[in-house]
Structures are given as C-alpha cells and as structure tokens.
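step 3/5: co-fold with zinc ion
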Amino acid sequence: MTDHEQRVNQLFQQSIRAKQEAAERLAPEIVRAADCMREALSAGGKILACGNGGSAADAQHFASELLNRFELDRPGLPAVALTTDSSTLTSVANDDAFEAVFSRQVRALGQAGDVLLAISTSGGSPNVVAAHQAAAARGLRTVALTGRDGGGLGAALGPADVEIRVPSAATARIQEVHLLVIHCLCDLIDQGLFGAAAPR
Ligand SMILES: O=C(CO)[C@@H](O)[C@H](O)[C@H](O)[C@H](O)COP(=O)(O)O
Ligand SMILES: [Zn+2]
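step 4/5: write tokens
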C-alpha cells in the first residue's frame, strides 16, 4: 500500500469509528429529533434548516429530501433551506450583519410549531446560534446537530429542543456523521408518516 493509500485507509477507519461511536451514543436523541419533526409536520408545520459551509450543503440536502423525496415515493413535505437565496443572504449581511442572515428569515417564515434544524460542527457559529434564539422566541423547537462540546448552540438549547452532538473534535468526521443522522431523520419521518419499508 502506498503512503497515500494508507492515509485514505486511515480516514475511512476514523470515519467508521466516529459513526460507530455515534450509533452507540446518539440513537435515543435521533429518535427524539425525528419524533419532534414528525409531530410538527403532522400538525401542518414545516422545517427550516440552516448552517454554514458544509453544513449549509447539509441543510439543503435535508430540505430537498423532504420537499422532493427520500427513498419512498410519497408527497413532498414542507421544508425550507435558509442558505440558498443569495439576494436575501447578501442584503441581510450587507445591511445588518452576517450574524442575522438566518435569524431574519426565521422571524419572517417561522410559525409556532415549526422546527428549526440548526447545523454547526462547533456549535459556535453566531448566525446559527442567533437562528436558534429567534426560533425559540417565536415558539419553534430546535433540533441541533453539533459536535465537539456543543458550543454556544448546545448551551442555548432549552428542554423542548434536541441536541445531537457527535462525539468527535474533527470537523470533517462530524460532518460525515451529520449526513448519516440526516438520512436517519428522513427514514424515521417517512416510516412514521407513510409506513416506509425497513432500510435496505
Ligand atoms: O466543510 C467544511 C469543512 O469540512 C467547511 O466549509 C465548514 O463547514 C466551514 O468552515 C463552516 O464555516 C464551519 O462552521 P461550523 O460547522 O463550526 O458552524
Ligand atoms: Zn467539509
């Protein structure tokens, strides 16, 4: 095996270990988060999703799996990624502050009973923390995907919120687990609402 192949192998092993540890520790919180989202959707609510960088992509990935479909052919479900409208993002950042790019949209779009999916590997992104604060003030529950020590986001959550904190300090490994968690949430939501088949 070449040095580079060995490095690739190590990265795969680290990712597998991070996922194994997460499966052992996080299953109850993942089920709680899916229940929270399913209840909101059943009651006519929607899910707003946000994050920065790779987590912005994760927010969009999740929203598209709800709006379009995951594995089951079923009607679209209401979800909005707060990361996609460049006119809104640039004008809020330009006129106010980058910290406000998600919270302003939460105040405009969020209704009591909706859920905010807040994704931050460090838990420290000020715009994600501000989105949670705006959500809480409007009666939304937050499902937070975090890592490390949960950061300011983990610390700001209330008893009705759910934190899924990946036990790792490496941003890339945390993101890899977040994507798996997102697919677990989609699977449990579909199963709860439409009786999806067992995972293949
Ligand atoms: O994808 C990566 C690193 O893997 C980066 O784009 C990463 O998402 C960005 O640095 C984010 O700004 C990090 O924010 P956060 O996860 O700490 O909230
Ligand atoms: Zn990344």
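step 5/5: annotate
Residues 52-55, 120-122, 124-125, 128, 171-172, 175 surround D-altro-hept-2-ulose 7-phosphate (ligand 1) (CB under 6 Å).
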